[in-house]
């Protein structure tokens, strides 16, 4: 089209020069972007686009999003078997997996404390206080990523970490294997679970992870209400559920039946721990960012936050109402909420409906 | 047609150069990846060297798209709903991409010749 114009001569010149100037500017701009980074990937300018407006969800639609799953998922690489889960439970409760023979997984992730330890921060080898609170393993089967800073992709990857960490159980892998091999009654348990007499580290991780996946929250009053029993929770709690999904802004991160999307956010807490920022040093939003915990059994799982510095659910709500420290890394979802006193107590009433009647766990008899 | 002044001669030459550039750019394909529902709209995307992938945040929350493949790193930063960012891949590679915030978002871009 432009070539045809050219052959007709310069009669169209006045419209031409402006067009050529714009094209030159674009080519120069592209050249500048290309030469500024000789990287293999070139990022262009972000532009605004218009999105279609989404209709607000009705309370019934919201309730449907919170239904409990019927099945616990197990990965193809480590499928469930009863023998593996039984061996995993034994290993989970065995204090001989620590150098000093006094700490097991269950020491910090105890069924007595909602599968945590009720402490602001964990306590490890030599009674040393650790940097962060012990997370629960409730509903870990549904997790997408593990540890406060997300450095473990799977439960199998996480399981051997604390065993080897010098501040935690402080037992090197070769010593762990030697110990288990020296306990005669372990051999048949590993053979039953893995069809091999040889005890290996991956098997230990697989067994512990399989057991952990069996730890799920039981049916809570909230679940009964979701399933249609209007008398299961109070009107205060029902209002709290609505606030949780609207003005409270909670469901943006504490989403779904387990009340987490496993996302990482800086919620503006006054702690020097940079969390996931240690692994993604160039990502501003990951500084001071920690994984969103689930909220099942939450009323029985204080104190709260990655360092246990917030003691009660009322104080948690207060923190979110204020919005936390305003800094570049803070999540855009954090801002002062201006909740009324009623809305705050409604939220706490709702959170209390997430407590189920957990069946007490029998501690296994350990191999000798 | 008659040849006029030198300045008017220069214009057609520049146009030919720019046209060449425009044609080359037009041969590169464009792809769009959506982020609605805290997932990437494709888990795997096969593209050619020089193609552009537009990361569109059509979700209702902020995302931070990031490559974790050394040598093909990029970080789009925190981008809110209603924004799109073009990313051009110029080398053959397999690039792993995540959202730094949401672990439910991961995909792979396979760049070939």
Helices, strands, pairings?
The complex is a heterodimer of chains A (368) and B (113).
Chain A lengths: L1 H6 L5 H24 L4 E3 L3 E2 L10 H6 L17 H11 L12 H4 L46 H10 L8 H9 L4 H9 L6 H13 L7 H6 L8 H11 L18 E2 L24 E2 L21 H10 L18 H12 L16
Antiparallel strand pairs in A: 3-4
Chain B lengths: L5 H22 L2 E5 L9 E5 L3 E6 L7 E3 L15 E7 L3 E7 L6 E7 L1
Parallel strand pairs in B: 1-3, 2-7
Antiparallel strand pairs in B: 3-5, 4-6, 6-7
Any key phrases for this structure?
heterodimer, A: 368 residues, mainly alpha, Cytochrome Bc1 Complex, Chain D, domain 2, 2 domains, two-stranded antiparallel sheet, 13 helices, globular, disordered N terminus, B: 113 residues, alpha/beta, Immunoglobulin-like, four-stranded mixed β-sheet, three-stranded mixed β-sheet, 19% helix
Description:
The complex is a heterodimer of chains A (368) and B (113). Chain A is an all-alpha fold and 368 residues long. Chain A folds into two domains: 82-213, Cytochrome c-like domain (Cytochrome Bc1 Complex, Chain D, domain 2), CATH 1.10.760.10; 218-352, Cytochrome c-like domain (Cytochrome Bc1 Complex, Chain D, domain 2). Chain A is built from 13 helices and four strands. Chain A has helices at 2-7, 13-36, 59-64, 82-92, 105-108, 155-164, 173-181, 186-194, 201-213, 221-226, 235-245, 313-322, 341-352; strands spanning 41-43, 47-48, 264-265, 290-291. Chain A has a two-stranded antiparallel ribbon with strand order 3-4. In chain A, helix 4 packs across helix 9, helix 6 crosses helix 9 (201-213) and helix 12 crosses helix 13. The longest helix of chain A has 24 residues, at 13-36. Chain B has a single domain, classed as Cupredoxins -  blue copper proteins (Immunoglobulin-like, Sandwich). In chain B, 30% of the residues are buried. The model of chain B is unreliable at 1-7 (pLDDT under 50).
